């Protein structure tokens, strides 16, 4: 089956990026949001990234126009009726995702593949809300989607070999390098990343070193682009806590148990860059 028309549910941080890379790869893309205001905000973020590409000489004005012309927005899910593949990138909430999958299952053609960009929720749980669990898989893009080279493809126990193959071909057509993981919380990247971030918080809480020195140790000692506490602030401390809880619920291993400092920071609203304060302070 060839994919021509791609649908994306949600035009937030990830949905907008996914929409952009699909249109850049030549697909027709329909992206949905819950209101015109949020749709326009998401589309404006794509426009500004494309404009930056033109300014920096990475993209010709004609290419920008044709990429933009391949993107259409909607607030009506029934418009997904012509999609061969729909990628769900709504907020990380299982009840909402199950509802979206059940709706898509009714609207989309029988051959359509339904994918989720979830970071840690059970993909088989979403698949079972449809009548086509064999055609459901995870396409877990990294943030920012247009920049990051990796795509984690997640297969559930019910994903068919054909669906996986189509997912791989599609991911490669976006220029991404693919790794394949089983449907367990955190997949490959977050299952390794989250305990590392939690250990940095534990280290800070235990007074082993200052936040600046913990970050500099990793930044300069291991040549990572940023240290763990800076990274946690960038991801969002609430998101780190959410994924840690999902990992702990599944595996019950102490390495995934969120430290109380992280919980207290989230309670205080110190979520990182997005709230102007996390481990560090940011100018809004
Ligand atoms: N942010 C990251 O770094 C990252 C990385 C990988 C995966 N993810 C996953 O991607 C998904 C989206 O995350 P995000 O950071 O883009 O969140 P976000 O809050 O920026 O965007 C989600 C968007 O979905 C919209 N939405 C909610 N319900 C909808 C519906 N029924 N129909 C259409 N749109 C709807 C919201 O209005 C919002 O704009 C989550 O599952 C998240 O776990 C996030």
Descriptive keywords:
single chain; 284 residues; alpha/beta; Rossmann fold; N-(1-d-carboxylethyl)-l-norvaline Dehydrogenase, domain 2; 2 domains; 11 helices; 14% strand; binds nicotinamide-adenine-dinucleotide
Question: How would you describe this protein?
Answer:
- The protein is an alpha/beta fold and 284 residues long.
- It has two domains: 178 residues, 3-Layer(aba) Sandwich (Rossmann fold); 87 residues, N-(1-d-carboxylethyl)-l-norvaline Dehydrogenase, domain 2, CATH 1.10.1040.10.
- Helices cover 46% and strands 14% of the residues.
- Strands 3-2-1-4-5-6-7-8 form an eight-stranded mixed beta sheet, with helices on both faces.
- A hairpin with an 8-residue loop joins strand 6 and strand 7.
- Helix 7 crosses helix 9 and helix 9 packs across helix 10.
- The chain binds nicotinamide-adenine-dinucleotide.
Note the topology:
Layout: E1 5-9, H1 13-24, E2 28-32, H2 36-55, H3 61-69, E3 71-74, E4 85-88, H4 94-107, E5 113-116, H5 123-127, E6 136-141, E7 150-155, H6 161-173, E8 177-182, H7 189-205, H8 211-221, H9 228-235, H10 237-251, H11 260-267
Parallel strand pairs: 1-2, 1-4, 2-3, 4-5, 5-6, 7-8
Antiparallel strand pairs: 6-7
Helix pairs in contact: 1-2, 7-9, 7-10, 9-10
Bound molecules: nicotinamide-adenine-dinucleotide.
Nicotinamide-adenine-dinucleotide binds at residues 9-15, 32-34, 38, 89-92, 96, 100, 117-119, 140-141, 143.
CATH H level, superfamily name of the largest domain: NAD(P)-binding Rossmann-like Domain
CATH fold descriptor of the largest domain: Rossmann fold
Overall pLDDT score: 97
Q: Give a short account of the largest sheet.
A: 8 strands, mixed
Q: Kindly state the percentage of residues in helix.
A: 40-55%
Strand order of the largest sheet: 3-2-1-4-5-6-7-8
CATH class of the largest domain: Alpha Beta
From N to C, what is the helix and strand string?
Answer: EHEHHEEHEHEEHEHHHHH
Using the 3D structure, state the CATH architecture of the largest domain. 3-Layer(aba) Sandwich
Total helical segments? 11
Radius of gyration: 19 Å
Small molecules held by this entry: nicotinamide-adenine-dinucleotide
């Amino acid at each position: 089956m060839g994919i021509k028309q791609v649908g994306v549910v949600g035009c937030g941080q990830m949905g907008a990026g996914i929409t952009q890379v699909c249109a850049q790869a030549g697909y027709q893309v329909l992206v949905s949001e819950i209101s015109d205001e949020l749709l326009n905000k998401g589309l404006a973020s794509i426009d500004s990234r494309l404009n930056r590409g033109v300014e920096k000489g990475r993209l010709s004005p004609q290419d920008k126009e044709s990429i933009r012309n391949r993107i259409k927005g909607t607030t009506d899910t029934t418009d997904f009726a012509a999609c061969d593949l729909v990628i769900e990138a709504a907020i990380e909430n299982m009840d909402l995702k199950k509802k979206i999958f059940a709706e898509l299952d009714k609207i989309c053609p029988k051959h359509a593949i339904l994918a989720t960009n979830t970071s840690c929720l059970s993909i088989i749980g979403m698949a079972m809300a449809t009548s086509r669990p064999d055609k459901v898989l995870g396409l877990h893009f990294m943030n920012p989607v247009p920049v990051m080279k990796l795509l984690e493809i997640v297969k559930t126990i019910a994903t068919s070999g054909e669906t996986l193959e189509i997912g791989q071909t599609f991911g490669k057509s976006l220029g991404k390098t693919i790794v394949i993981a089983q449907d367990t919380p955190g997949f490959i990247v977050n299952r390794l990343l989250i305990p590392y971030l939690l250990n940095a918080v534990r280290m800070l809480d235990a007074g082993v070193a200052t936040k600046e020195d913990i970050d500099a140790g990793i930044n300069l000692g291991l040549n990572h682009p940023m240290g763990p506490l800076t990274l946690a602030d960038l991801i969002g401390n609430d998101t780190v806590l959410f994924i840690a809880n999902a990992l702990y619920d599944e595996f019950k291993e102490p390495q995934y148990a969120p430290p109380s400092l992280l919980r207290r920071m989230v309670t205080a609203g110190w979520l990182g860059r997005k709230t102007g304060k996390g481990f560090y302070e940011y100018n809004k």
